[in-house]
Structures are given as structure tokens and as C-alpha cells.
Amino acid sequence: MTADAAGAGGISGRRSLRPLGGVLAAMAVSLTGTRVSAVALPWFVLATTGSATQTGLVAFCEMAPYVLVKALTGPLVDRLGPRAVSWSTDLASATAAAAVPLLHALHLLSFPLLLALVALIGAARGPGDLAKEVMVPEAAERGRVPLERATGLTGVIERLAATIGPAAGGSLVALLGPLTGLAVNAGCFALGSTIIALALPRGMGHAAEVATPQTGTGPGYWRRFSEGFTFLRGEPLLLTVITMVGITNLLDAAFGAVLIPVWAKESGNGPTAIGLMGSVLGAAAVAGSLVAAAVAHRLPRRVVFFAGFLLAGAPRFLILAFDVPMAAVLAVFTVSGFGAGFINPLLGAVLFERIPRRMLGRVNALGDSLAWAGIPLGGLIAGAAVASVGLVPVLLAGGAAYFLTTNLTGLRGEWREMDRVRGRHDHERQPQQDTESSGANPAA
User: Fold this and answer.
1) Most buried in the list 144, 182, 226, 310, measured by CB within 10 Å?
2) Averaged pLDDT for residues 63-80
3) Could you tell me the pTM of the whole model?
4) Which domains does the chain possess?
């Protein structure tokens, strides 16, 4: 967004931390609810069916609609504004999540109906998460907060949710059963919807695009979608990032949705161990994100980024493949979490610097969806693999794949742009935005 556009959008010259605080609070409650559900839902399926394959199928039915709908709603977020999309989709997620324990209590919840409700939750979560992400640069601008610090704080919120959510989920499942965790998830979505709808400043979160003088309307849906695709195609760094993160996301999905629950059940540690491991990982990641928020703008991005992946990836898989004390597992998860805390703040800053404000919705939607495309398959692949060859070989193969993916991809030359882009601002990209509006190749 240019300085003129900012003024037109009603952003005052006074600094206010209320917008950033509101967006972060909404992220915190919705992500915490999702993390609680990530423990409660797989355990509910395992407890009622005893099938790792069906557990993977439930994960697929949530994440496939998440990825698909998120990819297609980017132009709508740009057209309607992220605020309206965020509160309405969070409300839909809350309704679907609340229906699961309610229908189970009434003995009306069949497995196909559970899959349908989980799919609805995923379909609503996708655009809701996207809309909150899109509001971060505007909130940082209103608060006069450096972009890397704002994305660092976003990372802190994500990691706090990853800490509190699994601990709460594991405790709720152990004490009150998995359906209580799903009810808490519904309440968190409802609270997030309320924060976005009522707590943010009145002029925040509206559409970044303006109508054309000739028609009085903006470009159509498919024109917006095409502009986002064309822009992304002309950014080699973003495409390289998306490819690598897509593979690691698939492996992480397999790890979280199937491998950890199966390990907890086979080892006898139970759902409490899942919550403890997730909390340790999340707490360490909070520390990493706080360090990133404080000093990331002074550090070489490439070195920190790949060091974070080296710590965050393969060690988690490998430690579970061996019969070691729980203290050793928690130690490895602590180191992995600290490394993971640096990844998303750096990625977020690079993305927000390179993407024009008016296109954040559609480009982020496409990029996120491509990066998340493998997540629905992670649970399915892991469930089938564990059923075929057992848990330990799958853990070893997953750790090796994670290590090779992050290290081999890092040899590509596009990563030099990660440091070169530092300090680029939207007003410096205005000529490129004008070129995109005329339909030319943005890479030019």
C-alpha cells in the first residue's frame, strides 16, 4: 500500500497498538482452539475406531478443504476485505465444531457425518486464517511497528498457541474426554470472531482495492486470481520457498496427525505425553520467536532460516524411533522448538516485503495453499505406511526425507534474494504494481 493509499484508507498519523493487539488476540484464541482440537480429534477417532487409517482419513478431510478453499478465496479477501471474511468464517467454524460433541451426545454422529463436519471446519478455517494474516501489515503500519517485529510477534502467538493448546488438549482429553476438547475449540472460534468483528478500529480490515473510474467496480474474480498467479510465477524465491515448505509441511502433518498419536499409544505414554511434547516444543518456539522479534532484523536471514530448519525437522522424527527416556524426547523437542521459532517470522517478513498490499489476499492464498497442498496427504500416507511396515521405519524415513529436503533445497541460488530484499517497502514497489495492473509480466 502506498502512502497516498494509506491516507485514503483512513489510517491516521497517530500511533495505535490496538489494531495489532486485536489481530494477535484473535489469532491467539483461534489457533489455541485448533491446537486443542489437534489432540482431541485424532484421539477421539483412535479411541472409537482403533484405526490409524481412519485417523489419517479424518485429517485428510479437514485439510483438503482447508487448502482448496483457501486457494480460491484469496481474490474474495481482497475484494470484500479481510475483516468481514475473518469474523464470518470463524463463526462458521465454531458452529461446525460445536455440532460434533452435540451430535455424539445425541447418538447421531456417524463416521461419514463426522467427516463432513470436519471438512466444513477445514473449509471455513482456510479463509479465516488467511484474512488474519492479511491484516498484519496494516496493523503494523497503524502501530508503526517494524514489519519483522510484527511478524515475529505473530510467530510468538503461533508458538504460544502451540504451547497452550496441546497442554490444554492433552489435559482435557485425559480428564474429561476428547469431545470436551472439541467443545473448547468451538468456543475459541466464537471468541476470535467476536474480537475481529467488534474490537478492531472501525476503519481497519477493509478491501485494499478501489473501483475503476470507467466501470465503478474492481476487476472480476478470475482477473484477480490470474493477477495473483502471474505475480507468484514471476517470483523465483517465493516459488522455491513454497516447494520446500510444501514438502516439510507434508512430513509435519504426518508426524502430528498420525505418528505422534500412534507412538503415544504404542509406548503407553497416552494423550498426556502428546500434550507435554507439544507444550515443550511450543514453549521453546515462543522463546525462539521472541528472539526473532527482537533481533531478526539484524541477522542474516538465510543462515538463520536454514539453521532453524536443521534443528526443527529431522531430530523430532529420529528421537521417537528409539526407545529412550521421556526426558531425552523432551530435550530434543526443546531444541527443535527453539529452531522452529525463527522460521515463520523470517518467512512472513520476506513475503510481506515482496507482495504488493493490494494483492496480499490472492498471492498469500495461492502460496499458502500450494505450500499446504501436501498436508491432507500426510495423514493418509502416514496411516497407510504405519499399517504396512510399522511405526519405527516410517519415523526413520520421515527424518531422512526432512533432512534431505531442507539441505538440498538450500543449495539453490534463489535464496540469495532473501537477504537482498531486506528493507524494501511498498512504495518502492509501486511501479511494479502499476505494471501488473496493465497485465504485463510482473517479473519484468
Assistant:
1) 182
2) 81
3) 0.63
4) 17-208+222-437 (1.20.1250.20)
